[in-house]
Input
Amino acid sequence: MTNSIGELEKDATGIFVIGSNTTENHPVIGMKIKKNVLKNGAKLIVADPRRTDLADLADVYMAHLPGTDVALVNGMMNVIINEGLADKEFIANCTEGYEAMAEVVAKYTPEYVEKITTVPAQDIRKAARIYAEAEAAAICYAMGLTQHSTGTDNVKSVCNLAMLTGNIGRPGTGVDPLRGQNNVQGACDMGGLPVTYPAYQAVTNDAVREKFEKAWGVSLSPNNGLTLTDTINKAYEGQMKALVVIGENPMMSDPDLHHVEEALEKLDFLVVQDIFLTETAKYADVVLPGATFAEKDGTFSNTERRVQRVRKAIDPVGGARPDWQIICDLATRMGYPMQYNSPEEIFEEMKALTPSYAGMSYARLEGRGLQWPCPNADHPGTPFLHKDGKFSRGKGAFSAIEFKEPRENPDEEYPLILTTGRSLFHYHTGTMTRRSSALDAHKPEAELEINPALAAKMGIQNGEKVKLSTRRGSLEIKANVTDILAENVVFMTFHYHEAAANWLTNADSLDPVAKIPEYKVCAARLDKI
Output
């Protein structure tokens, strides 16, 4: 997040939520948005293929077709430019590339965009005006925006929208990605990406690499590593021989599980380190029992870049051990002695190599923690980024982005759009929440949301089992007839191994930059059983 969570409750006078079922997937943040709208009168715009909880409070709700985000945002920018609502001073002083972007956006009139998205032109105009005229407008998005073959373009588009209106670098403004999992921000901060060391320092940068080589006493590769999807593909092709999976469950969370299953079975050696025997762990040669959050010390970095202390409540149960101890032992046995006395010692080494964390310490993190960047011991942390329109690259860069169709569109054989997501009651692949008797009793099985008109055409009754198919396979699932989505769109969550959505999703459709799969759009067919 460029800004802080609290700003969504008190500073933002306009909020644009796109591709995020916030009240279900980020309920604390969703509550703050609702409070701002209901108590302070903040204007709310929601864009989502499903009529989510926040859509009922919205001044404008835009039910665009899955995969048409770029066209929708370009349409809003077309209105803002043509009606003189752009922040010309901010554009002139703080950005570059405006002319090329504006030239592309010129053809995306609301009427043109309506044909692509199905959103009425008048709603696009109303949304654009609300966002541009707000004193401080924030954009919130989640995986509904990123999990597309054009996910990078989608994110660049909302950044264009923020810069076009000067809604960056002030309280209540900004572009706020709502992270999908606990501490995923911290994992990225600490170099859990294949192209960066901690603090997003590029693997390919010679000076950066030399700094880490000196600190660690080893030679490091100058080449970028592989993303998760690339890794599975390499295993499938026989080019990846061994794999260590830590706290990840690709046999539930990756697209086209037939493909993933074949890839894992082709490995010579698979190690899984986790707190339960997951679907992926069942394919492992060795399972290493990791400790839960309550059994270890350390830090988490949350979605607003806030680094917070985590303290052990109980000793690890059974043979479980903290992840850092297991990793250190593995490294040592593989020839690189790695020895630390505590997580704090690791943190001290990390902050010496990570400029954005350099001013932090366990002592300073007491209480509410600190938001990075925090470059020195006197720095209070940073509640929002890009103050006064000053970007880390210099000027903010507009991107000229054309709308591209999803990779797999409906046809005669597969006439529907399948999109996937999460429920309030279960988390990610269900590794923990499906083992909670109360949660599983409340939502015990997978459901397919089907529009009433489609259900009536097919003679499908609410609650009966139906057959859902894509080009990857079929599964049986309970029908949930609901009017919160369009007639040609069906939706299911991916929490349930008995009816795993990712047996059906498409592994061949990846964003070319981020390599994220297109979980949110694939062609599907529905059959009455």
